Amino acid sequence: MQVVHNLDRAESGAQKPLNFKVSPEFHREYKAYAAVHGISMVDLLREGFDLVKQRRG
Predict the structure, then answer these.
(1) Measured between alpha carbons, how far is 34 from 9 in angstroms, rounded to an integer?
(2) Residue 14 covered by a domain
(3) Residue 31, C-beta contacts closer than 8 angstroms, at least 6 positions apart
(4) Stated pTM of the model
(5) What local confidence, expressed as pLDDT, does residue 57 receive?
(6) Tell me, what is an example of a GO biological process annotation in this record (predicted)?
(7) Taking a C-beta distance cutoff of 8 angstroms, is the pair 13, 20 a contact?
(8) CA 8, CA 15: separation in Å to the nearest integer?
(9) Is residue 12, in this structure, part of any structural domain at all?
(10) How far, in Å, CA of 17 to CA of 23, rounded?
(11) Are the CB atoms for 16 and 10 separated by under 8 Å?
(12) What's the structural domain count of the chain?
């Protein structure tokens, strides 16, 4: 049996894809919101995740 170390930390600065799908409407709204506010979609995701973690613990 092969052991997979998928929770090992990536080297600093490296990025990995998040693999999930959203509706075309959500994608359009999300992308437009990020563009209007001058932030990347990744930064918007990070900010939203940080807020959820603060609220839910």
Answers:
(1) 28
(2) no
(3) 41
(4) 0.72
(5) 85
(6) regulation of DNA-templated transcription
(7) no
(8) 13
(9) no
(10) 18
(11) yes
(12) 1
pLDDT digits (tens, 9 = 90+) for 8-56: 666 778 889 999 999 999 999 999 999 999 999 999 999 999 999 999 9
Reported as a pLDDT band with limits 50, 70 and 90, residue 6 is low
Amino acid at 49: F
- Complete DSSP assignment for 2-53: ----TTSPPPTT----------HHHHHHHHHHHHHTT--HHHHHHHHHHHHH
| Domain span including residue 35 | 24-56
For residue 37, being part of any structural domain is answered with: yes
Residue 31 domain-assigned?
yes
Residue indicated by tokens 């995701």: 45
Q: Name the token pair of 27.
A: 């994608």
The two tokens of residue 14 are 């490296």
